[in-house]
Structure formats: C-alpha cells, structure tokens
C-alpha cells in the first residue's frame, strides 16, 4: 500500500483495506494516464520537416501540424513550432511522429520539446488544440489538447 493509503487506513476510516487499495489504485492510474498521454501520427511515406513558424509545422509531403485556439478578445494561445529550429529533428526522416503531453509547457514530438504559450491577463483559458492537416488542406484532425505556459501581462 502507498503512504496515502496507509494514512487513510490508520485514520480508522470505516472502509475496508481492499476498498482503500482500489481507490488509491484508481487515483494513481488516472494520474499516470493524464501525465503520460502519448499520441502517434503515422505517415504513408517517409517525410521531413520542411519549415516551422509560430503556429505551424510543414512537412515535405505538404501536410501540416497546426495549433488552434478560438481566442477571446485579450488572449493568444499557440504552439511555438520555431522552438524546434535548433534541434536535430529538422534533419530527420520519419514515418511516425510520437507526441507526449507536458501540461503547462507544451509537448514533446519524437522527444523534442515544442513550447506552447498563452499570452493573456490570466482571465481566459490557456489551452490549445494540436491539429494535423492533410496535404490537400481539406481535412484537419484534432490530435490532442494541451495546457500552455501562461504568460500574463
């Protein structure tokens, strides 16, 4: 049993030890799932990153990775794909992208950090959707939603 579970048991709650274990197991399982959400995107042919900007990443096959947020008047939430500009991922060829959420900061793409920012006064939401757009530009699929690093002004 974990320390939290042991404390619950020692405080003489009228709950069985098995029930406490189940509750603790559920809490930790959900926590681990939230903290380690991993997503993948597979390409039909090998691709390279062609270009980066503040809000999109363009691949050699014409497809794009985008950040999207329906902004209110005084906020700007985005994934800063230029944070990959000095990383070796720009020279790599791949058929699969792996994304790992780092809530409050952004996400890792094949192990390289993409910073996400929310510039606002602290009143608005600080999340952004990460979308994959096909090479013809007609279809954009939401891959995941991430909490950004808050930059209050």
Task: Tell me the domain tally.
Answer: 2
Count of alpha/pi helices: 2
Q: How large is the radius of gyration?
A: 20 Å
Mean pLDDT: 82
Unreliable parts: 31-35
Strand content: over 45%
Major sheet attributes: 6 strands, mixed
Percent helix, as a range, is 10-25%
The count of DSSP E runs of length 2 or more, i.e. the number of strands, is 11
Q: Distance N terminus to C terminus? A: 45 Å
Helix-strand string: HHEEEEEEEEEEE
Q: Label the overall shape.
A: globular
Class computed from helices, strands and strand pairing: alpha+beta
What does this structure look like?
- The chain is an alpha+beta fold and 153 residues long.
- It has 2 domains: 3-35; 38-152, no CATH class.
- It is 18% helix and 46% strand.
- The strands form 2 sheets. Strands 1, 5, 6, 7, 8 and 11 form a 6-stranded mixed β-sheet that branches. Strands 2-3-4-9-10 form a 5-stranded antiparallel β-sheet, with no helix packed on it.
- The longest helix has 19 residues, at 17-35.
- The termini are far apart.
- Residues 31-35 have low confidence and may be disordered.
Notable characteristics:
153 residues, alpha+beta, 2 domains, 46% strand
Short description:
With 153 residues, this protein is α+β, with helices and mostly antiparallel strands. Helices cover 18% and strands 46% of the residues. The protein contains two helices and eleven strands.
């Amino acid at each position: 049993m974990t320390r939290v579970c042991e404390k619950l048991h020692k405080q003489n709650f009228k709950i069985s030890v098995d029930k406490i274990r189940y509750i603790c197991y559920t809490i930790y399982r959900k926590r681990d799932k939230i903290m380690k959400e991993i997503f993948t995107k597979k390409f039909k042919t090998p691709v390279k990153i062609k270009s980066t900007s503040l809000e999109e990443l363009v691949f050699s096959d014409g497809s794009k990775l985008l950040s999207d947020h329906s902004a209110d008047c005084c906020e700007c939430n985005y994934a800063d794909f230029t944070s990959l500009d000095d990383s070796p991922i720009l020279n790599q060829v791949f058929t699969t992208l792996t994304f790992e959420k780092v809530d409050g900061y952004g996400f890792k793409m094949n192990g390289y950090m993409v910073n996400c920012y929310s510039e606002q006064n602290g009143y608005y939401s600080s999340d952004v959707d990460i979308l994959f757009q096909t090479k013809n530009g007609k279809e954009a699929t939401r891959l995941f939603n991430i909490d950004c690093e808050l930059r209050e002004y």
